[in-house]
Amino acid sequence: MNQYKIADPRTQYPVMEIPEQKQPEPGLDSGLRPKAHHGVETYEGNGRLKGRKALITGADSGIGRAIAIAFVREGADVVISYLDSEKSDAEDVLGVMRDSGQKAVGVPADFTNEDEARKLVHKAAKELGGLDIVVNNSGKQVFKENFTDISSKQLVNTFTVNVFSMFWICQEASEYLKPGASIINTTSIQATRPSPGLLDYASTKGAITSFTKGLAQELTPKGIRVNAVAPGPVWTPLQPSHGQSQDKLTKFGQNTPLGRAGQPAELAPLYVFLASQESSFVSGDVIGATGGRLL
Prior knowledge:
The protein is of the alpha/beta class. The protein contains eight helices and seven strands.
């Protein structure tokens, strides 16, 4: 069903039977079992982002993939970023996006590299002829049973990908963003309800939440809105690529009040709302999508 038809949210998507599985980082959507729902068959656009130009990081799979599909179906031209190892997923979603008739471009970028992160923004602006929307969605999550097992390398890489790259991208994007533009960051319920085993990841999400609120104070008076979405457990390749323990993976999301994990397709409309003029009085806010868990 599409996003406009009323349905019982407990059964709108099934409680998944998740087999034990592992993927190397960062994980591919093509290898995910069962497959995630990104709105390919269901998302219906209504021109809410017509004429907009958007950069979405980490949009080859997961939540970013669903956002990209929704944005083009709402009339935006979109540049997505991805890692070289995710090229097959990126090519797949770019094909879906181009079916909408909008411009869709993929640019590889490794966010552990400051130069690549900064150059991505200028490449996107050149491809699209400017920027109106920036979605910082890329993320790194590696589960460690004991926080003492988190290496300095993992700690630095997690903060670089999740936090530092967001700074760099927003700094470069400020050259292009004009009044009416929107920045949307992906934080997490982990920012306020951190889980054992994800201490470094949760810490970055707390930083993203603070960054969002702080940057909004600086940019909102200039007519540029800054907001964030805080997902709860959502089924993406992040989970089997060392993002969860195997014990937690097979029951992923079943402890939410809705009794199931979320699907990326359920998150995309929130990003559309925050990117569109419908949210013109919303800035410095965090919208939760947690299956009923409290932020």
